[in-house]
UniProtKB/TrEMBL annotation:
Top-rank taxon: Bacteria
Catalytic EC class: oxidoreductase
Identification of the protein by name: Homoserine dehydrogenase
Pathway participation: Amino-acid biosynthesis; L-methionine biosynthesis via de novo pathway; L-homoserine from L-aspartate: step 3/3; Amino-acid biosynthesis; L-threonine biosynthesis; L-threonine from L-aspartate: step 3/5
All residue ranges annotated as the ACT domain in the record: 353-428
Xref: InterPro entries: ACT-like_dom_sf, ACT_dom, Asp/hSer_DH_NAD-bd, HDH, HDH_cat, NAD(P)-bd_dom_sf
Keyword Cytoplasm: no
Record flagged with keyword Cytoplasm: no
UniProt source species: Intestinicryptomonas porci
Family (UniProt): Belongs to the homoserine dehydrogenase family.
Record-linked Pfam families: Homoserine_dh, NAD_binding_3
Length: 435
């Protein structure tokens, strides 16, 4: 065991500054808690001249990432720069040199996770920790890796994007439009520079891929998931949900058919019963529910982002890094299942809510009904609502349980119909059970 471990940083943005500040200002206490002394050795930044919210000596700053990664004295590399290709190139170097890597980069993990863990298998002295990549201040990675290690999971679901949760909360609470609340979210800095990452469900999908790997040992590509965002949600949908004791949330859902060794991974806005704890998690908070075969259901709630919450997760990984350096142990996902495949769409079932803008004319309802029948989709409830245009109407309907494949067929046929004036809007009615 070394008397002092040296930590280097790739990137010194908001989260990294929070980590540096807390470890620097509380050095004595944190050394005691972490079980070893440490030195914040070097940070790679885009511009040394840039003013930051934390005071870092000039001699501890560099603009060359290799100064951090290739430095033989640095034991732990904290990759907090973001992006995929450049970050992966640097992480690869660090692993090949036997260093411990800590990252909050869910996009890199989602796209390069299989390669990263392949590299780790060839470099047993190295290790990667990534608590901060999912749900910020909620220790969900550690829960899966350690606290719930005895369990196999039939269902994992929850809210993994605080921006979308904030928007949906305010839309419902204030009867405000999506566009109005999104504008406020931009002003408050809640939305990524590339807002499609949040709004279109991509950020949540990256995080879902990490959870799927931890639970099932398979890296799921975005192309293998159902991924839908919140752009098309209207107040009419919020009002209907409220009337029937639902709430609309952007959910990440991972379901497992253990017997068939198949999983489904999806991100979509869903109608969630108000009796579900997750439905009552609002604002920028995240929530993750896990259904284990031994523990049953556990629900984890907390801040999903922000400097301090995410810095807390990074420091948790530093504590694990110290343990790994002392023991030379390497993490292997506890639920690796050889040959795990993705469920085909015909095997993924749900009930659905569908909103249609249609011609307000004789024969429209009959045509709509015939399309659903031809696709073997059974309608459970049908309501007609007044449209802002005199010759149009809103149709709100729900279905009995049917497959993703059947609903996609039905929506494609509806979109081609002369009676339907806009692309059908679809919400899943989420059942918090794996079946």
């Amino acid at each position: 065991m070394k008397s002092k471990y040296k930590i280097g940083f790739l990137g010194m943005g908001t989260v990294a500054q929070g980590v540096w500040r807390h470890l620097e200002e509380n050095h004595s206490e944190m050394s005691r808690r972490l079980g070893a002394d440490y030195e914040l050795s070097l940070a790679c930044v885009r511009s040394i001249a840039k003013k930051r919210g934390v005071d870092i000596p000039a001699e501890k700053l560099t603009e060359n990432p290799d100064d951090v990664v290739l430095n033989p004295e640095i034991d732990i590399v904290c990759e907090l720069m973001g992006g995929v290709d450049e970050a992966f190139k640097l992480v690869k170097k660090a692993i090949e040199l036997g260093k411990i890597v800590i990252t909050a980069n869910k996009a890199m993990l989602c796209e390069k996770g299989a390669e990263i863990f392949g590299l780790l298998a060839k470099n047993p002295k190295s290790q990667i920790f990534f608590e901060a990549s999912v749900a910020g201040g909620i220790p969900i990675i550690k829960s899966l890796r350690e606290g719930l290690v005895a369990n196999n999971f039939s269902l994992i679901y929850g809210i993994l994007n605080g921006t979308c949760n904030y928007i949906l909360t305010r839309m419902e609470r204030e009867n405000a439009s999506y566009d109005a609340v999104l504008a406020d979210a931009r002003r408050l800095g809640y939305v990524e520079a590339d807002e499609s990452l949040d709004i279109d469900g991509i950020d949540s999908a990256h995080k879902a891929a990490v959870l799927a790997y931890l639970a099932y040992g398979r890296w799921v590509k975005l192309s293998e998931m159902i991924v839908t965002g919140i752009r098309d949600i209207r107040l009419e949908d919020m009002i209907w949900a409220r009337e029937f004791n639902y709430r609309i949330k952007l959910l990440a859902s991972i379901k497992s058919d253990t017997a068939a060794k198949k999983i489904s991974v999806a991100v979509y806005p869903a109608l969630l019963s108000l009796s579900d704890v997750v439905a009552n998690v609002n604002e920028v908070f995240n929530a993750v529910a896990l259904e284990g075969d031994l523990v049953g259901r556990t629900v984890h709630i907390g801040r999903g982002a922000g400097q301090n919450a995410t810095a807390s997760a990074v420091i948790s990984d530093i504590a694990d890094a110290f343990k790994a350096l002392n023991s030379n142990s390497q993490y292997v996902p506890h639920s690796v299942q050889n040959g795990v495949e993705m469920m085909p769409l015909k095997d993924i079932e749900s009930s659905f809510y569908i909103r249609l803008a249609v011609k307000d004319a004789t024969g429209t309802l009959a045509k709509i009904a015939s399309i659903f029948a031809s696709c073997n989709v059974s309608i459970e409830l049908l309501e007609q609502k007044k449209h802002e245009n005199a010759d149009e109407a809103w149709l709100i309907l729900t279905t009995h349980k049917t497959s993703e494949f059947a609903i996609q067929q039905a929506c494609s046929a509806l979109e081609s119909s002369e009676q339907v004036l806009e692309k059908p809007f679809v919400l899943r009615i989420f059942e918090n059970s794996p079946s």
